[in-house]
Amino acid sequence: MDFRPLIVSRIVNLLPGLAIAVLGVIYGLTDRGVFAIVVAVVALGGGGWLAFRGYHLGARVDDDAIEVRGLFRTQRIERDRIDSITDLPGIVWKADNGRKHWMPIIAFAREESAPFFKNVIKHNQHIVEQLQEWGPPSQGSAQPRRPLRRTRDK
Questions:
Q1: Residues 6+ apart with CB under 8 A from 154
Q2: What is the pTM of this model?
Q3: Residue 95 burial class via C-beta count within 10 angstroms: exposed 0-12, middle 13-18, buried 19 and up
């Protein structure tokens, strides 16, 4: 199942990369030196990549693992390695060597002090609850892990 932010969040997430690309191109067009052109090309490439990644933030889960698409990398974490899914949200998991890691899922971060985006906060809270249901049972619980619940895509 693919979990994605609302369209308003996806647009907001692409804006920093878009701003970098536009500002780099403006600088390259106004200065016209070799350095300015190099800066413009790098800013256009880097900003475009960051805008693309920002728009495609999210998570994909199946019965065996979760794949988290972040701003800079995509990581797949096997379900049996996950210790917990936090409210931030983030995933606490163990590597092969037993070392604990933490992977944030920034696509569904919630800022309770943003009153204009109540639908976004509600949507993100719903996604986090679904991820926590899918994840490991809470510490001390004898409940088995729940299978992936199929819900209607929005």
A1: none
A2: 0.78
A3: exposed
